[in-house]
């Protein structure tokens, strides 16, 4: 038995086999030839997880450029400060390059795994873990590029993005197949965000305040005069909401088909109503919204303060832990339980209840009595979320590598005598 995984879970890892289906025409005819060429540039001595981690590191560097060039976004802004806020426009081009490189490296890590004979459940978990972390970082960056800033639109963007990721993982848990449709977040969604960065680099964030019908010169043409003339950034959010709705329907139909077919139904999901497993996403989302929507008292609400970014990061780390456990339940064939609850949510529950005491009981908060106390509590939540997720990652990687005799970031396996060797190239 491992430090985190049971003996049964460790044994089931050896039975697991990845299955995927990508219907994207962009992937098939444009990106896949590029990915097939790109992977040949990597030596067989480079581990696939090292490629994945390299991609995430580039995205994290993009985030650091936001912190460096736009420090006021992560601090309290002076209302009387007339200086222009935001990073210089050329920075957005680096974000576009960084995200495209991330997508490319994320796509070829599996190809590299097959080239080096390192394909397995650890790679899938590592890949999904990096994707989960990238999700929140890109929400922060893309919202800044769209000029949404600290607003409920950015919160909506976080919810839409995490919901799409959760649905895909939930679908894979029930069907055993990672489905990517004709339009998916990892392919077309990322390319759209890359385009947003490029446009912002040329035109600046104010461009996204342009009204949609006005840009198309249809604002005086019937029937468009009867429709809301939303800014481009808000129109993009409406588009994202429609995409989420389509993804919900698509995922549910795939799960329904799986459960009604005896050939593909998975034993560990047979007696479970799949819709109930959507509640573990809805519950923490409601908690976070409740915390953010607390009535402002003698200090700024979190959503309009310097605490907004660390709040989103804590939320993203809690989500990454949640979907990490979902993938673990998937690759262990149900030996590990589906994450219906996470103890770290208790921190957010305390924060939400405490902040809403004036609304619930008509009394002042106990913990978040002023800006300083709120700041300490939010940053403490971020630290606890980071520790919780980091501990999970370390223990799971340790258990899998020890049990399967493989390395995480190098191309090595243990032979029957316990010696580290290079695995044979996979066909």
UniProtKB/TrEMBL annotation:
KW Transmembrane (keyword) present: yes
Ranges that cross the membrane: 50-69, 89-108, 236-255, 275-293, 299-317
Keywords from the named record: Membrane, Transferase, Transmembrane, Transmembrane helix
UniProt keyword Acyltransferase present: no
GO annotation terms (biological process): phospholipid biosynthetic process
Localization of this protein: Membrane
GO cellular component entries: membrane
Domain of life of the native organism: Eukaryota
GO terms assigned for molecular function: phosphotransferase activity, for other substituted phosphate groups
Family to which this protein belongs: Belongs to the CDP-alcohol phosphatidyltransferase class-I family.
Protein name: Cholinephosphotransferase
Organism of origin: Macrolepiota fuliginosa MF-IS2
UniProt lineage: Eukaryota, Fungi, Dikarya, Basidiomycota, Agaricomycotina
């Amino acid at each position: 038995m491992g430090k985190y995984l049971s003996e049964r879970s460790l044994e089931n890892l050896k039975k697991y086999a990845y299955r995927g289906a990508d219907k994207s025409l962009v992937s098939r005819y444009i990106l896949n030839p590029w990915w097939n060429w790109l992977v040949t540039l990597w030596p067989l001595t480079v581990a696939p997880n090292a490629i994945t981690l390299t991609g995430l590191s580039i995205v994290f560097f993009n985030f650091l450029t936001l912190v460096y060039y736009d420090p006021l976004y992560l601090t309290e802004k002076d209302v009387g400060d007339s200086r222009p806020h935001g990073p210089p426009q050329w920075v957005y081009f680096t974000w576009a390059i960084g995200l495209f490189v991330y997508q490319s490296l994320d796509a070829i890590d599996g190809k590299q795994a097959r080239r080096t004979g390192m394909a397995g459940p650890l790679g899938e978990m590592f890949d999904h873990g990096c994707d989960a972390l990238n999700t929140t970082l890109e929400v922060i960056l893309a919202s800044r590029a769209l000029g949404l800033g600290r607003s409920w639109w950015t919160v909506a963007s976080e919810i839409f993005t995490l919901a799409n990721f959760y649905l895909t993982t939930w679908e894979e848990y029930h069907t055993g197949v990672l489905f990517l449709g004709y339009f998916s977040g990892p392919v077309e969604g990322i390319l759209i965000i890359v385009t947003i960065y490029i446009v912002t680099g040329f035109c600046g964030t104010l461009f996204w305040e342009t009204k949609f019908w006005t840009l198309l010169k249809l604002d005086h043409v019937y029937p468009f005069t009867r429709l809301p003339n939303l800014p481009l950034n808000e129109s993009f959010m409406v588009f994202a909401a429609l995409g989420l709705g389509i993804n919900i329907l698509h995922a549910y139909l795939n799960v329904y088909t799986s459960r009604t077919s005896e050939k593909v139904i998975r034993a560990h999901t047979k007696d479970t109503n799949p819709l109930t497993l959507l509640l573990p996403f809805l519950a923490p989302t409601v908690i976070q919204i409740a915390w953010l929507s607390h009535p402002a008292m003698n200090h700024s609400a979190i959503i309009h303060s310097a605490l907004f970014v660390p709040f989103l990061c804590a939320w993203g780390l809690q989500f990454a832990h949640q979907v990490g456990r979902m993938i673990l339940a998937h690759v262990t064939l149900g030996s590990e339980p589906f994450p219906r609850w996470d103890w770290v949510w208790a921190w957010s529950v305390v924060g939400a209840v405490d902040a809403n005491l004036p609304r619930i009981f008509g009394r002042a908060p106990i913990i978040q009595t002023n800006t300083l106390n709120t700041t300490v509590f939010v940053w403490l939540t971020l630290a606890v979320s980071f520790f919780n997720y980091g501990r999970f990652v370390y223990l799971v990687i340790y258990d899998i590598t020890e049990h399967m005799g493989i390395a995480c970031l190098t191309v090595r396996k243990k032979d029957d005598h316990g010696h580290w060797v290079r695995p044979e190239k996979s066909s």
